[in-house]
Amino acid sequence: MTSTETKSAGVIGDSPLRPDGTLKVTGEFAYASDLWHDDMVWGVTLRSPHPHARIRGIDITEALALPGVSAVLTAADVPGENAVGLEHLDTPSLADGVVRYQGEPVALVAADHPETARRAAKRIRVDYEELPAVTDPRRALDDDAPLVHRTRDDNLVRAMQIRRGDPEPTAPVVVALDFEVGMQDQAFLGPEAGLAVPDGEGGVDLYVATQWLHVDQRQICRVLGLPPEQVRLSLAGVGGAFGGREDLSMHVHACLLALHTGKPVKMSYARDESFFGHVHRHPAWLRYEFGAEPDGTLVYAKADILFDGGAYASSTGAVVGNGGTLGLGPYRIPSVRVDARGVYTNNPPCGAMRGFGCVQAAFAHEALMDELADTVGVDRVEIRARNGMREGDHNITGQLIDSAAPVAELIETVRDMPLPPERPQDDLDIRDLPGGASNTTHGEGVVRGIGYAVTYKNVGFSEGFDDYSTARVRLELTAGEPVVTVHTAAAEVGQGLITVEQQICRTELGVERVVVHPKDTGVGSGGSTSASRQTYVTGGAVKAACEAVRASVLARAAAVLGRSDLRLDGEKIVAVTGEVLAGLADVLDEAVEETVEWRHRPTHEIDLVTGQGDAHVQYAFSAHRAVVDVDVELGLVKVVALDTAQDVGKAINPDAVIGQIQGGSAQGMGLALMEEVIVTDGRVRNPSFTDYLIPTILDMPPMQVKVLEYADPHAPYGVRGVGEPPTISSGPAVAAAIRAATGKALRRVPVRPEHITGT
User: Fold this and answer.
1) What is the pLDDT, as a whole number, of residue 1?
2) Is the pTM for the entire model greater than 0.70?
3) Whole-Å CA distances, 603 to 102, 224, 366, 399, 614
4) Per-residue DSSP letters for 637-677?
5) Does residue 187 carry a pLDDT above 80?
6) Sign of the alpha-carbon torsion through 164, 165, 167, 172
7) Nearest to 519, CA basis, from 501, 546, 540
8) Sheet hosting strand 335-344, strand order edge to edge
9) How confident is the model over 42-76, as pLDDT tens digits?
10) Which residue among 491, 492, 538, 612 is least packed, with the fewest CB closer than 10 Å?
């Protein structure tokens, strides 16, 4: 991957052209699957067909005998420790003695052609003894449930409890519900891919699509038994991520094959393998109860949340943390009782996905807010505004909300946006109706509904995690022209971070020409591109490094000019009076470079008994209004409008902010209507985009987007994370609109046609 440079103007608050944008829309951008090396071989993974089985033996003889095959590897060939994981080292890089989910990697093949490698993989003979599997997470903690990991006493990954206020609260109005959320896939368009190149000295260079270079490096080093200086990672072109690239996929496998064969190894998953090669969003089962005064003011809330973590822990512990601490929504609630658990099963592993524990909870708490509103006879917008958090409130873990919390303003803003026109009685265009061009209806049986949701999300890593990013900024003269080079390991996964880094450098140093160094492990960690954190944390690091560079330049200028009342203005050294004293070329006789490791204010672990504590660094709030047309006879839904308001603190790049909000809204709508990995008895039934449906451009409705900018005084430039909140509030708004149209409770998403028709 080459460095990225633009000369176009663009400081904080502008929307400059993305340097990778034109290449992506014209098809010229090089993604990880486009990587090539002249003498490379191809790697393929053999995966388990069973959800749970003992491996009694593996015979690779026939596979090795196939012409063109250069290696066949199993767990016995792992030179280091055969265990990786984000939070728990419980995931073998290759199955060793047992498989715990369908699709678990068992063996690797390298060959001179991908088809040869696939044929060889089919010749590997694995003797499996099928074992009892736990596939219903609601039974995973029963005494007679099979153990997913026999080294453990039970199938519990993490349990969290939150207790606040009256332990035995009562209220004159009580509403309750059960809700279920299906398994969603990140469905990024660029499947897992990478290229591992041995260096001839026992080390390896890996070019890979990922979200977190340094945590990948740490895990790969563990498996290979090599120090970090011998395992170098560079970011390849990423075709979307959304959490699904936080865990390892082909990373270790490609490196193992490269070191074993002595040749570069390319691995690129097909779509069906991608469904098995990364984690998914946790399915969830939720039971909620709200108690309120007759006017709808909340008195207490109870919630029991169960997440299916699948076969390995991944980030289930953190998802439980988010689901528990944020699981009652952005509301003031005096008394709280929340229990959140994540369990192991023999289903596909689940981990990070946009919204991270809050998405599942939002469907339940927003459905119950609607029910409460209807029960007490209060408007559904008003009940949210009445109970919504405000700056100065404390949330359910007792943490002070010490910056803007405009819940009422957000929900009232979307309410007041113009509604789409009513469907015309004459001159109907069937493409605008449920079912579209399939001509299922001409308007008969079609009912319109409007739904609302407001939610919030933490930004950055929480509960005491050491969350930081590193930035190296260099200012030098090239052919007499000032050039800034910014180097971070923060992954650009399509969100526009490269542009943000350039904007910050231009703002802080006033230099137009900014080069973004390729993302690699040659600089300190940038942390994960997740948790809506990169503009905040890596942006903070780049800003701090720029400030250090500026201070060094001004110190040099002070020495040259013999005065200290100086500031940097554009590419000139200026006195505080405004007098231009020199140009950068006059004082910059050699490059100035500064590296800064930057942290936001600390978070803290929560109390294990009460669940109280300052768990999160920041909160971001959003609201949606959905308008849907529903064919109540056929169960088909057309989203007519999906309008939103969100507080972003400061729009560093307004166009990118709008893009993030629109994209996040599409994913939330997809979960409400169509996206679900169907798992039956531990087996995935729909690992393809033929059967796993995602919204297309024809499914996305017009969106009115209102961006609020209430600066967070604790954050660089006042920013708040942008990418996740729209995914959280959009889905519940769509589900609410369908309930409004049909009059049905609809306590499960995705909402299927049979849920609407009752057939």
Assistant:
1) 39
2) yes
3) 37, 34, 27, 10, 6
4) EEEEEEEEEEE-SS-SSHHHHHHHHHHHHHHHHHHHHT---
5) yes
6) negative
7) 501
8) 156-164, 335-344, 298-310, 284-292, 173-181, 748-749
9) 999 999 999 999 999 999 999 999 999 999 999 99
10) 612
